[in-house]
Amino acid sequence: MNFIALVIIIAFSLAIIAVFLYSIFLIDAIISNIRVEYIDVPSSKRAIENIKKTIRELELKKVVFYDLGSSRGSLAISIKKSFPHFDVYGFDRSGFKIILSRAKAFLWGAKVNFFRRDILKVDIREADIIYTYVWPTTVEKLQEKFDKEAKNGTFFIASTFPFPNWRAILERETLTIKRDPSFEKIFLYRK
Ligand SMILES: C[S@@+](CC[C@H](N)C(=O)[O-])C[C@H]1O[C@@H](n2cnc3c(N)ncnc32)[C@H](O)[C@@H]1O
User: Fold this and answer.
1) Distance of CA 37 from the midpoint of ligand 1 (Å)
2) Residue 75 in contact with residue 110, Cβ under 8 Å?
3) Element (H, E) at 59
4) Torsion region of 40: left, alpha or beta (phi above 0 gives left; psi -120 to 50 gives alpha)
5) Helix (H) or strand (E) holding 129
6) Ligand 1 centre and the CA of 151: distance in Å?
7) Mean pLDDT by 10-residue block, N- to C-terminus, for the chain (191 residues)?
8) Cα(88)–Cα(7) distance, integer angstroms
């Protein structure tokens, strides 16, 4: 077999694998009733570093950390790795992403608790820090929930989409996309 034929076979196989994986995401999105734009936009490495810097500055000792809408678990796992004394939880309504997250946490040796849940129905009373990176319509509903259910003193970190009715105590640009400074901008709130 010559070299060009080999390259074509490899490229073709990779394309089939990519289409297969994307189909799983689409089917999962349909089953889980997730809009297509929600499917997969994990926080970038730079945003995660910004979030960790913000957390470090809080100088908290014992922390229950919730990632509401944890997707494939990268942020939650990374937080647990950097703050091993935190109890870290990730919630997402996609069963497929929760399975992936649990597998990753196992492989990475990070003890993170991932649950398949609608984040609007998660019991948040135990959380000390809540992280959100979800669409503004969901942020709006979450903010109402936080107003009613979160304990006083809870910190909230929102990426890109701020809480419409709360004033941030800190804002930090990540500048993943230079022409759009609001993208992955980090907002810190305290109830
Ligand atoms: C932009 S991703 C955030 C990923 C992760 N938090 C990070 O920063 O890397 C948003 C995630 O929120 C989830 N999501 C959106 N609305 C949800 C809801 N009502 N209940 C549960 N998960 C939801 C989506 O499935 C998606 O995985």
Assistant:
1) 10
2) no
3) none
4) beta
5) strand 129-132
6) 22
7) 79 79 67 56 90 96 96 96 97 93 97 97 98 94 97 97 95 79 90 96
8) 44
